[in-house]
């Protein structure tokens, strides 16, 4: 939820009704003036969650469109109640979806297709068509076209009044690919102002909700009458040399909030688990603020040497304590004109908390051992992985300081709740690690992407980055296979890793994978089969002098599957010559 200057989280019940409004007895109580007393109702049943506007003054919108009737919510939907914005995040469904409504039936079908694609290593893509307006004429012409064109294995239908979903098994999502290119052209011919977005499994996601969310943001990024692939729904922020990838809809909203906050002088409190990207968020506030050209001083409050916390923060006079041989400016003073980032602010001892509060109130500091006050001109951005409110209740953190620092609070979601960003960040970190080691690029095998998508990431983005650094240094071949990943990433006896929200129906049914087998140990059967397939494909390519159609025919594999698998194996066939480049 993004309300005013802060973001927070609201968990929907597994089943029941949630009244959204500005006054009691609302279950989701919003203070923003733009919200009506009784604004909307969210109904959660085993068929999913739906939102209904209750005749509110400023309306309820989903993805920028006014809600009419009961609107089904999908993961990644951006929901607004007046000026309050929420991003919908689906938890894994443990209940079977009753196949009554079109969108639910489609999603259930997609789940089955994702399962099949992952289980048998088959290509699968989804295509989302976003209509400029939910006009019935456009809808009918698209429907007529689809009925005439749809292949037997394809499923098509409306996600909502403005979004059409096509599930395309055996399509890998390559631009201009046979089957996909014509379909997109035909759709755009029927609906010239629509936007198209595509996403492929497992490259862009390993579960149905993620694939649809990715394809929808790609469609949003496309120009009217154009198509965009998943990568175009991703933003790379270049913050004075720091590169931050943002693809998850909640992260996009949060970065938009950070940009708005940057324009003010408010202190910002960034909350989230360790390694989730809090420092990047703090730096973004600094970079986009009028202080952007000033210093950004990051202070890890948990790492300040005990007994020296105050002199480190506020500086000291010569002789203030044993060892203070010279007068020294503290970290706050060195952030003059810029921003001080107080990481792990919850770890500050009580005396430093009191002194910090005073410094922020009077905008002056006093060095340890000094009596003079010195003016400071800085902005504070603090971060914590703790629940500071609970720390206040427990008497470990000053309430007045909490109020001061937390004027605007931004809660960053953990990586396991941003499934879209896992493959993106993994590829990005891996590619950078390869460049810095001066080695050729590595490719993440489909099963490796699947394992990454199921991992719970307790160390969040940092854990993923470290893993990719390790993989770049340790893997000798061209492809990162699941057995290259550390054993903790994989479940015992082939069970999926217990990613609490990440495991899907498809995931649970996927084939067993084991990792971390010692050298010389037998490979799991699935992997042995992949090795064999790879060898046969390479032999066939050699025998066919690099001509893929011939090679595929030699081993009796459909050409589409052959080129999809080559791509997954990281074999680049030069255009024109069509011969493998990596063997
Ligand atoms: N969206 C992103 N794109 C690229 N890199 C990222 C992203 N988010 C985090 N990282 C990288 O992941 C690592 C951890 O991020 P960061 O230090 O910001 O996390 P943190 O929440 O401040 O961690 P801690 O809780 O330990 O202080 C850094 O190397 C950071 O650059």
Automatic annotation (TrEMBL):
<dbReference type="InterPro" id="IPR009057">
    <property type="entry name" value="Homeodomain-like_sf"/>
</dbReference>
<feature type="region of interest" description="Disordered">
    <location>
        <begin position="485"/>
        <end position="524"/>
    </location>
</feature>
<dbReference type="InterPro" id="IPR025944">
    <property type="entry name" value="Sigma_54_int_dom_CS"/>
</dbReference>
<dbReference type="Pfam" id="PF00158">
    <property type="entry name" value="Sigma54_activat"/>
</dbReference>
<feature type="compositionally biased region" description="Low complexity">
    <location>
        <begin position="494"/>
        <end position="524"/>
    </location>
</feature>
<dbReference type="InterPro" id="IPR008984">
    <property type="entry name" value="SMAD_FHA_dom_sf"/>
</dbReference>
<protein>
    <submittedName>
        <fullName>FHA domain-containing protein</fullName>
    </submittedName>
</protein>
<feature type="domain" description="Sigma-54 factor interaction">
    <location>
        <begin position="244"/>
        <end position="473"/>
    </location>
</feature>
<dbReference type="Pfam" id="PF00498">
    <property type="entry name" value="FHA"/>
</dbReference>
<keyword id="KW-0238">DNA-binding</keyword>
<keyword id="KW-0805">Transcription regulation</keyword>
<dbReference type="InterPro" id="IPR000253">
    <property type="entry name" value="FHA_dom"/>
</dbReference>
<dbReference type="InterPro" id="IPR027417">
    <property type="entry name" value="P-loop_NTPase"/>
</dbReference>
<dbReference type="InterPro" id="IPR002197">
    <property type="entry name" value="HTH_Fis"/>
</dbReference>
<dbReference type="InterPro" id="IPR002078">
    <property type="entry name" value="Sigma_54_int"/>
</dbReference>
<keyword id="KW-0547">Nucleotide-binding</keyword>
<dbReference type="InterPro" id="IPR025943">
    <property type="entry name" value="Sigma_54_int_dom_ATP-bd_2"/>
</dbReference>
<keyword id="KW-0804">Transcription</keyword>
<feature type="domain" description="FHA">
    <location>
        <begin position="18"/>
        <end position="67"/>
    </location>
</feature>
<dbReference type="InterPro" id="IPR058031">
    <property type="entry name" value="AAA_lid_NorR"/>
</dbReference>
<dbReference type="Pfam" id="PF02954">
    <property type="entry name" value="HTH_8"/>
</dbReference>
<keyword id="KW-0067">ATP-binding</keyword>
<dbReference type="InterPro" id="IPR003593">
    <property type="entry name" value="AAA+_ATPase"/>
</dbReference>
<dbReference type="Pfam" id="PF25601">
    <property type="entry name" value="AAA_lid_14"/>
</dbReference>
